[in-house]
Specification:
Length: 422
Amino acid sequence: MGNTIEWYDFGVFGFMPAILGAVFFNAADPTDNVLGTFAVLAVAFVARPFGGFVFGPLGDRIGRQKVLATTIILMSGSTFVIGLFPSFATAGVLAPILVVLARLVQGFSAGGEYGGAATFIAEYAPDRRRGFLGSWLEFGTLTGFFLGAGMVTATTVVVGDEAMQSWGWRIPFLLAGPLGLVGLYLRTKLEDTPLFREAAAKNTVEASPLKTVLRTQWRGILHLIGYIVLLNVADYVMLTYMESYLTNALGLEGRTPLLVIMGVILAMMVIITPVGALSDKIGRKPLLYTSCAGFIILPIPAFQLMDSGNSVLLTLGLAIIGVLLVFLLATIPSVLPAMFPTEVRYGAFAIGYNLSTALFAGTAPYIVTKLVADTGDQLVPAYYLMGAAVIAAVPIFLLPETAGHSLRNVTSSTAAPRPVAG
């Protein structure tokens, strides 16, 4: 639910960047409006590492459940209030300032969300089903984006383009409030994870987990940063940037870009949990190798298909990127928590994940949009994905196989956990 709320926000921003840019920045050029919106998206990522440094170690000290209850209400609240803000035409420069402040809060709280949610699921899941159960976390990612994009699309259809630019854009943001309250209710009903409760009962909970993380887990954190470069770039190019690319870079008109993207995302939602279950049977690494190799070889053909002018080929090109991304999304919730021991798992995960996300994810839509506009080369997103795959290839190769292994046996960030007997 928390991941759904986080990505609902990205779906809303990603599917109406030109409208939000005009509302809050009032630029004369449509490309500048889009860049302004993507810059606001990127601002949130500046705060994410700080959230990771605060919420991650805090979750190792006081428990995963308490921190996750806090992050979900902060995330949903910061998205909700954007729907109440005045426009640039009403408040001038105060409008973008308020949006930036809200995005900073959203980014700070999101810095404690994903690492905590993945840790929570991984520590509850049976060892032989961690891939399947962990993949539901990324099902939440796709659901949130689908809901955000769908709400933008539905609101546009109902109120019309003119009203959408005037006041309709507020509706998708305001719906984040009720989503957050539902999520908060659910999280307050959960017990903390068995592994954390065991650590607390044995008095092995770290008194200063941040110091311990930085002293003992820095190699694992660097490994994690390199590994998820590809995930972050692919995630945000596919989910946040693609609608703008199809509309502005390729010049597609009408509802075709929205419908094609939403159709591919819906298909990703259907296959992601079976892929997670497959990783329990054959291991995580075969799926990771396939995804990494695919992102090195296939982006150029995929983007050429998108630029073919044929709706079927457009869908096929987008589906290629979507399937390769699913192989990553379905495995990381089970792979990353297994890199660190229980006492520092939340903190090490959150710090590494959010440093990588801040460096490579939040900047991706802005950088790619800028490069396409400056060079006129429609294949820039393909090059960007290929470069990320090359960077991630070595860290992915060095990852130990963790399928079927117990998280109780993880003793360091560089050693594979021991398999469970039976």
